[in-house]
Specification:
The chain has 491 residues and is α/β, with parallel strands linked by helices. It has helices spanning 20-39, 56-67, 89-94, 117-122, 125-138, 153-173, 194-201, 210-218, 222-235, 243-263, 284-291, 302-314, 427-437, 451-461, 474-490, and strands spanning 7-13, 46-53, 72-79, 99-103, 144-147, 176-180, 204-208, 237-238, 267-269, 295-297, 322-333, 336-342, 357-360, 372-375, 381-390, 395-405, 418-423, 442-446, 464-468. α13 runs parallel beside α15 (474-490).
Length: 491
């Protein structure tokens, strides 16, 4: 489903102690809050007020309904009054959707002259949310706690950000990844436990024959290719005379997309070691498919392919860009240290600073014809790079903060898309931390998805989260990794 098709259920906590008049007021206010939050323009999905829950049965029933309603991507709770937390145990024990505890209150200010015991009985969010929070802590529930006044923009933006992570969790649970061949021979980090990943993250990772893909490519008509060429000329600068190579990439794009859609897959991998029957390694074709929201991983890296698709889903509708990426080489001049990210061909043009150029150049590996690709520079801005690795028995999500910059040199003979960045806390410490954590050479780079959203997503998926920031040191990271190893062995 698209982002706009998901909804989040607003469940308000109370009890019968306060009488029907108070419950009527709570119900009215809850509807008002949902309506105003939806009208704020800060939320990517709709909030649906479901119930002011006063009994264990009401709570359990709404949780059961949420679990089996596909468009419900999560539950948001708030306790207007005091809601005894034992009422929530059975419901919370069944909850399978992401959960946000919205610690707010209806009124912004304490009314000096109006405050009396009637006001105190009605407005007990400070009381009720703490009781509510205890039971989630007692049950060791993964959850997001957002505190603040519900009409403040920064609070609404945090709620909207969490919603995006929850949509990423829903997307993940239904994600299918198409593998063309295996991963690159003898590479370790692209391996992983596909059964364990499906149990934990929901990903269905399977392989299809390259020969079947070739059949799809060969079925693409000349008319379809010509239409695609018109689109290429409109969106990009055609910087090659080898139009036959570009036309073949159009055939690959249409063939791969058709096969992905027929199988219900939103991500795919391939490898230059298995291109039997194909004329070119898909370059432009892959870049275009990522631009449309499909995930991709080079050299058979199905984990980064799926993560690219997940981050694309989380950032739907945003314009900064998200791309499959690889740290390729470093600039180690003192005081001017940078990482240069690129790949053989496949970097998504959503991160381009200017109109990309279509070019055709030799590849040097794969043994096929020279492939067409989009060449461009990435735009400046704060971003993150993300790597998911299989630690044997558990998954680790590694996120590093980076600052992308305009490349400090033009590199006129580098015939691929590229992004240059400063790694946090600095290049050498960042590299040491990344290697210490086991981060892969393939990553997902995103200007739109935040580290907080990835932390939320990791909590929803119940996997380990490592964050390399401007304040990270090698010694603190070593200690954190050691403690994490102990903690995850006990789980």
């Amino acid at each position: 489903m698209a982002m706009k098709d998901y909804e989040f259920w607003f469940v308000v906590g109370s009890q019968f102690l306060y009488g029907p008049e108070v419950l009527d007021i709570i119900d009215e206010r809850a509807r008002e809050m949902a309506d105003k939050l939806n009208a704020s323009g800060k939320l990517p999905c709709k909030i649906v007020y479901k119930v002011t829950a006063k009994t264990p049965e009401e709570i359990t029933n709404v949780v059961k309904e949420a679990n089996y309603t596909d468009k419900c991507a999560g539950i948001i709770t708030w306790c207007h009054t005091f809601s005894p937390s034992k009422m929530w145990i059975n419901g919370f024990a069944l909850l399978q959707k992401p959960y946000c505890h919205f610690a707010t209150q209806y009124n912004r200010e304490i009314p000096n002259e109006e405050i009396d015991m009637d006001f105190m009985n009605l407005n007990q969010a400070a009381h009720g949310d703490r009781e509510h929070g205890f039971i989630a802590a007692r049950l060791r529930m993964p959850r997001k706690v957002i505190a603040g006044y519900w009409q403040d923009e920064d609070v609404q933006e945090r709620l909207g950000s969490w919603m995006r992570a929850a949509v990423g969790a829903a997307f993940s649970k239904n994600l299918k990844v198409m593998r063309f061949g295996d991963n690159m021979r003898n590479v370790a980090v692209t391996e992983g436990d596909k059964v364990g990943v499906q149990e934990k993250l929901g990903w269905q990772v399977n392989t299809w024959p390259v020969g079947t893909l070739v059949e799809y490519i060969n079925e693409v008509s000349d008319e379809e290719v010509s239409s695609m060429m018109s689109e290429y000329n409109e969106k990009y600068e055609m910087n090659t005379d080898n139009l036959d190579a570009v036309r073949y990439q159009a055939k690959e794009e249409l063939g791969i997309k058709r096969m992905l859609d027929d199988e219900g897959c939103k991500a795919f991998t391939n490898t230059f070691e298995d291109l039997y029957g194909m004329e070119q390694l898909p370059g432009l074709a892959t870049q275009r498919l990522m631009e449309k929201g499909y995930g991709y991983g080079g050299e058979g890296d199905w984990k980064v392919s799926a993560m690219t698709a997940v981050l694309k889903a989380i950032s739907e509708g945003q314009t900064g860009g998200t791309a499959f990426m690889e740290d390729y080489t470093y600039h180690l001049v003192k005081g001017s240290e940078y990482s240069l990210g690129a790949h053989m061909l496949e970097v998504c043009p959503s991160v381009a600073a200017e109109k990309p150029k279509i070019e055709v150049h030799p590849l040097g590996i794969g043994g096929k014809s020279d492939p067409a690709r989009l060449v461009f520079e990435g735009h400046p801005g704060d971003a993150i790079v993300v790597s998911l690795v299989d630690m044997g028995g558990r998954l680790r999500l590694i996120v590093q903060d980076i600052e992308c910059v305009k490349p400090i040199m033009p590199m006129p003979n580098l015939p691929v898309a590229r992004v240059m960045w400063k790694a946090m806390p600095n290049l050498t410490t960042g590299v040491e931390c990344w290697i210490m954590a086991g981060g892969a050479h393939h990553t997902v780079l995103s200007y739109d998805v935040t580290a907080e959203q990835m932390e939320d997503w990791a909590a929803m998926m119940d996997i380990e989260y490592v964050h390399i920031t401007k304040d990270t040191t090698v010694s603190t990271l070593k200690n954190d990794l050691f403690l994490a190893d102990l903690a995850w062995k006990l789980k």
